[in-house]
Amino acid sequence: MSDYKEIMNKVILWGQQEDDIRSIFIVGSMARSDKPADKWSDMDLVIVTSDVEKWLQSEEWIRKFGNPQISFLERTHVGNIMERRVMYDGSCIVDFNFMKLEVAKTILESEEVQGVIARGVKVLLDKDSVTEVFHNTSSLIKNKEVPEFSEFKNDVNDFWFHAVYTAQKLRRGELLVAKSNCDEYLKRLLIKFVKLQTIMKNSTNQQSWHDVRFFEEWADKEVVQEFQGIYGKYNEESVWDALFETMKLYRKVAKQIAVELEYEYPIIADQSADKLVTNYYKGRTYLKFEE
């Protein structure tokens, strides 16, 4: 049965023996003090190599660290690099993130990646001083600056456009398309503003994480409570309810942000979309739409 300490030691030895492996370091819960690893954590390894394809195209090497039960390739949410995700016996999960040596410095200095590194990093191997860039990372987590009015306006218009789009798909009978758009696209725009709301309210003592990690802890408590009503079941009436509740919450958060930033809220987009969606809902028993 594999365990993380045993796997880590084997990874270090492997890296020392393979000439193309130039640097290996751990990020994520096993490298940070804030929200440290618990029994549900996996190991996130970043491997800088001069030959990424060599390791992505083969699976034999993963047996050096334990007995793999599941293995597949996936792009990372942060950094957009390829990783091999492996579940070893004993439920040890290791993400092997491969990064080309020639672009490593550029990727590691990106704002998104620096945000992850700033939370904690543990260097296991570094043959070329690739990780020197870590010394310039602030101990504080830097959130993105608030958006310019043009970005804020665009996001709000984007949301209301796709609220109407979701209603049209519901009217056409494309239930899965409508539900997916409501649960994914609209929620992504909503969560972006919830993060911004967190930054503005808690600029120093509370920070949002990438994606929706630990959402229940950093988001506004009232918003978290209201999230209970913005996801529907796979039936038409439930998706309509979820759509209206999502619109209601987005409007509330977006208007609060507009007030805080002293931006003009795009009321015409809001009112026009709300009217259309309401009319589509009320007329659903007899009206059909065509593209």
From TrEMBL:
Q: Which InterPro entries match?
A: Aminoglycoside_adenylylTfrase, NT_sf
The root-end lineage is:
Bacteria, Bacillati, Bacillota, Bacilli, Bacillales
Concerning Pfam families, the annotation shows:
Adenyl_transf
For molecular function, the Gene Ontology terms on record are:
nucleotidyltransferase activity
Kindly indicate whether the keyword Zinc belongs to this entry: no
> Can you say what this protein is called?
Aminoglycoside adenylyltransferase
Its domain of life?
Answer: Bacteria
Keywords (A to Z) from UniProt? Nucleotidyltransferase, Transferase
